[in-house]
Amino acid sequence: PEATVELQIEGMTCASCVRAVEKSLANLTGVLSADVNFATSKALVRYVPGAIGPQEMIRAVEDAGYEARLAD
Ligand code: 9UX
After folding, report:
1. ipTM strictly over 0.95?
2. CA of 56 to the centre of ligand 1 (A)
3. Coarse DSSP helix, strand, coil percentages of the chain, rounded to the nearest 5 percent
4. Using CA atoms in the order 47, 53, 55, 60, what is the torsion angle rounded to 10 degrees?
5. What is the pTM of this model?
6. pLDDT in tens, the chain (72 residues)
7. Could you tell which of 9, 10, 12, 14 is best to mutate to test the pocket of ligand 1, judged by most ligand atoms within 8 Å of the CB?
8. Nearest atom in ligand 1 to 14's CA
């Protein structure tokens, strides 16, 4: 099984920020892929439900120094 969630990221000001956020998400157990769009500041995350959830993802992004919430 697999699900996707979209997160709204705040605080990214350069392309290195994008990679840092992607890495913080991709490193999490249960995350299959993480793609951040710099133009929209949104992260599209594919993950395994039951292995991880959005709140853990948000915490990881915040630990990396950015803000995150569920996208509208
Ligand atoms: Mo470069 Mo993006 O220091 O914060 S990684 S601006």
Report:
1. no
2. 23
3. 30, 40, 30
4. -50
5. 0.95
6. 999 999 999 999 999 999 999 999 999 999 999 999 999 999 999 999 999 999 999 999 999 999 999 998
7. 14
8. 2
